[in-house]
Design goal:
This protein is mainly alpha-helical. It has 6 helices and 3 strands; from the N terminus they run H-H-H-H-E-H-E-E-H. The chain has a 3-stranded antiparallel beta sheet, with helices on one face. Helix 1 packs across helix 2, helix 4 packs antiparallel against helix 6 and helix 5 packs across helix 6. Belongs to the CPA3 antiporters (TC 2.A.63) subunit E family.
Length: 158
């Protein structure tokens, strides 16, 4: 992936040299032309196109921001009720992520989301223990983490 980024930057510089315009806007145009060329020649050079990971990372960021906003609203509604009807608990979340980076990223996203906190990991790092403020439906929470965070993390890292 790093080689593709360097190649793309090199193509953008070559574009600026060929057009004889040395501005940031021409660099961006050259970079876009380089992305298109790399996409066209990805089959011949036999590599995974790096922009798909960039798009997946942007998707992960947007999903995290959405979950952060929704969780803030849910926590505020829990706290502002006249009677606290919270059902706190701990969930054992089985993860399919393999590398330490992936598990760390998932646990960070879970911890940064209001109302949830990663407490511990199993010895094999395949189970994450999560404390939640309101655990009405354990399977629903596990499914949301799996579909929202874990699937997109796999897209970014694989």
């Amino acid at each position: 992936m790093a080689l593709q980024i360097l190649l793309n930057i090199g193509l953008a510089i070559i574009w600026m040299l060929l057009t004889n315009h040395y501005s940031f806007s021409h660099f961006v145009i050259g970079y876009i032309v380089g992305v298109i060329l790399l996409y066209i020649f990805r089959r011949f050079l036999q590599f995974d196109f790096y922009m798909s990971r960039v798009i997946a990372a942007i998707k992960l960021l947007l999903i995290f921001m959405k979950e952060m906003i929704l969780s803030n609203i849910q926590v505020a509604m829990l706290i502002l009720r006249p009677k606290l009807k919270m059902n706190p608990g701990v969930i054992a979340y089985p993860t399919e992520l393999k590398s330490g980076l992936e598990v760390t990223l998932l646990s960070s996203l879970i911890t940064l989301t209001p109302g949830t906190l990663v407490m511990a990991f199993s010895d094999d790092e395949r189970t994450i223990y999560i404390h939640t403020l309101d655990i009405d439906d354990k399977d629903k929470i596990i499914n949301e983490i799996k579909t929202n965070f874990e699937k997109v993390i796999m897209e970014v890292t694989h």
